[in-house]
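Changelog note: in this version the structure field was regenerated for every chain. One regenerated record is shown below for reference.
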Amino acid sequence: MDTERFLNETTLDQLVSESGDREEYETYYRDFLADLRHLLVNCENATEKLGIVLRRAKFNKNFAEETLYQVYHTCINQFFYPKQEVYEEDGRHSYTGKDAIIFHKPVTPELRKLVLSNSKIFEYLREELHYYETDYVTKKRMKSM
């Protein structure tokens, strides 16, 4: 189940009614949905920018590196550190084979499945793009000196 389809087909009322206590869950799910919408928009923007990188007649390495750096910060970091803090990553779990995402409240099975399947994708991307978290910034600093 992908994020866009989930957001298009799921309402706040549906999530709250599946979880029971309206007072306990309404704000939590509202924040959760807001984080998912922001993540989706940032990922769509990143996809467009990556398309530009690949479609240019002459490959621009600096633009590509900057774009990948932005993908790392606006998509990957936003997934693992959501603004509303509706879940968090516990890196120790990934070493044990357990899910690394810890939800702050029990969530619906569909939402849980969505986030956990996305976590595998974002974890792979984070490993592949880790260079742009450290070396890219170092290279930029070195050029400015």
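Spot check on this record: The longest strand covers residues 87-89. The helical segments are 3-9, 12-19, 22-55, 61-80, 91-96, 109-129, 131-144.
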